[in-house]
Amino acid sequence: MNRFPFTVPEGYFENIGTPEYLQKVRRRRAAGQMVRRMALTCVTVAAAAAVAVIAMLSPRTADSGYDGNIEELYIEYLCSDLIPETVPDAFYMPEEFFSETSE
Amino acid sequence: MSDEEIMSLCLGGDYESAFNGLVHSYSERLYWHLRGFVSIHEDADDLLQEVLIKIWNALPRFRGEAHLYTWLYRIATNEALNSLRRQKLKNMLSLSSDDSVFASRLEADPYFNGDELQRQLLAAVRKLPEKQRLVFVMRYFEDMDYRQISEILNTSEGALKASYHHACMKIRNEIPLHF
Predict the structure, then answer these.
(1) Which domain range does residue A82 map to?
(2) What is the ipTM of this complex?
(3) Given B12, B67, B81, B131, which is the most exposed site by the fewest CB atoms within 10 A?
């Protein structure tokens, strides 16, 4: 190691391996585990909050339990008079078609 | 305690005794290995504790397929590289130059007793790409032979020699007046 321009504090290597030093390492290990557990908890809570916000902001269909395909939904709306019979393709048109102010 | 005794304790499940044996036999060597990468005593001391924690956690998984020293040096080398990357990121986020932070910390380190040339050498080594830095530190500072470095880094001796040559060329360009 004579190319190293470094020194160490007196007694440094003798201290390593003593019960006190090993205790310090164990405490550091325990602290690291606690930090990791806290970080995991924060990430889990943040992820759950994000999912809740996304679910809240997502548009809902009239029937929130509906899970059928688009064709079935079209038939349902047609039968419920939500889509004018004279304009059956209105279902597929942009939203502003249904606006009261649209031409 | 010999490597065989330590491995025997580890494979027999007596991790506490194996760990104590490792600490007594390898701490100093691992310290100097780490110091070669980080230069500052405080950082090397911190890193050594992290490495010992990693070794403790990994002991149950050690199967003795690699030599003990190879396994230990790999853990230490990976930890050193992770530390250098974290330090670089920390400096970037605080908008500080990695080089100037290192230079001022080295200046302030009471356990650095090198001259200006050695200061420049350490700064130049720090600028090397990772692989070249690894090889240079292990070859030049730790005086390891290529066979040992090859086992630790899992790279061919030929590739290591090429890396070392390139590292020397780059350092020579950084501090040309002294070569």
Answers:
(1) 60-98
(2) 0.80
(3) B12
